[in-house]
Amino acid sequence: MGGLSTNKSERQQRLTRYLESDPFLTDEDLAQILKVSVQTIRLDRFELKIPELKERLKSVAKGVVALPRTLSGREMMGELVDLDVGSAGMSILPVRPDMTLSKTRFLRGHHLFAQANSLAVAIIDAEVALTGIARVSFKRPVVCGEKVLARAVIKIKKGNKYMVKVTSYVKDEVVFQGRFLIVAEPEEVVPQ
Question: Is the dihedral of CA 87, 93, 98, 102 positive or negative?
Answer without folding.
Answer: positive
